[in-house]
Design brief:
4-stranded mixed beta sheet, binds glutathione, 4 strands, Glutathione S-transferase Yfyf (Class Pi), Chain A, domain 2, Thioredoxin-like_sf, mainly alpha, GST_Omega/GSH, GST_Omega-like_C
């Protein structure tokens, strides 16, 4: 397959869809499920294509790791640099060993699945190595698949249901305010192209963080009535892990840091991150994450200089303190 394609420019301008300078994320296009007739459940048949920095990718790796699916669903990481030609393989990421194309760019794999594909080229991607097809590129659905369809192959926490039927409506409700105000909220601050768009996103973000701080003063986990971690906690965690080290400066989310302004959120973040003896720490690469954000978003950070701070000694792994 040729490397040339209409997908040339990494430009979040493409997602600023209105005169108000607001960032609007586009919807994912591949929405099939493993467990269907076309995509039967099988070990080491499906692979994930992920970027270290991406919080939507990180959710999928958190669930994969918590469920002990590392060998069942192998991962291929793209390079940290998102340039004019989109995500690419190699350099500080992995080579493409799954598509049979030895692809240089992720777009080749999208076009392999659908030669007429015209949408955005995003990670995460759940890929069928046997049929050489993308199954799904929507993280919220990929984590549900791992909790449901892949659970029979789980080697850890098989009895942990991250979306239990009795909590579903509560989980849905939490996702509905966490996603636009926090997960995507930091991007709306960072990618805003007008002062007012930035200010609206900023106020919504910190108002929501204030509410979250309050909720976590009396609840161990974010979903009311949950006695264990649920998908809502794992969807929130990637944004919290990146907050003080990236979003505070790079996306101008700088009213308060988690470490100094939100003790309940900060300690909750550590508690969830340290679940299961700290196994989730293998899913997070701080250096690669910083390199991606500060190095790729040249409209925000013109020279691509990656800051050396803040000092994160003990930031993630010291004991958490929660009076619950
Ligand atoms: N709805 C998607 C969003 C994924 C997404 O936006 N990924 C970003 C990385 S954080 C991406 O690949 N962007 C590529 C681009 O902007 O060109 C999901 O949650 O899976």
């Amino acid at each position: 397959m040729s490397n040339t394609s209409p997908h040339k420019i990494y430009d979040f301008n493409a997602e600023v869809k209105n005169d108000h300078g607001k960032f609007v994320r586009t919807a994912s296009k591949f929405r099939e499920f493993v467990g269907s007739e076309q995509f039967p459940l099988e070990s080491d048949r499906y692979a994930l294509i992920l970027a270290y920095a991406c919080p939507w990718c990180h959710r999928t790796d958190l669930v994969r790791t918590l469920k002990g699916l590392e060998k069942i669903i192998p991962v291929v990481f793209v390079d940290n640099f998102l340039g004019e030609e989109g995500w690419r393989f190699g350099h500080e990421g992995d080579q493409d060993t799954i598509s049979g194309l030895d692809a240089k760019f992720l777009r080749e794999i999208y076009l392999q699945s659908n030669p007429n594909y015209e949408g955005k080229i995003t990670v995460p991607v759940l890929y069928d190595k046997k049929q050489h097809l993308i199954v799904n590129n929507e993280s919220s659905e990929i984590i549900r698949m791992m909790n449901d369809q892949f659970n029979s192959l789980a080697t850890r926490n098989q009895s942990l249901d991250l979306y239990p039927s009795e909590l579903r409506s509560e989980i849905d409700k939490v996702n509905e305010w966490v996603y636009p105000n926090i997960n995507d909220g930091v991007y709306k601050c960072g990618f805003a192209q007008k002062q007012q768009a930035y200010e609206e996103a900023f106020h919504a973000l910190f108002k929501t963080l204030d509410e979250l701080e309050n909720i976590l003063s009396s609840q161990r986990f974010i979903v009311k009535g949950s006695k264990h971690v649920t998908e809502a906690d794992l969807r929130l965690l990637p944004t919290l892990l990146r907050f003080d080290i990236v979003y505070y400066t790079h996306f101008k989310c700088n009213l308060k840091s988690l470490r100094h302004g939100y003790p309940n959120i900060y300690n909750y973040m550590k508690e969830v991150y340290q679940l299961d003896g700290g196994i989730l720490s293998q899913t997070f690469n701080v250096d690669q994450t910083k390199k991606h954000y500060f190095g790729s978003h040249r409209r925000i950070n013109g020279f691509g200089i990656v800051p050396l701070g803040p000092d994160i000694t003990g930031y993630y792994d010291t004991p958490f303190h929660r009076n619950l």
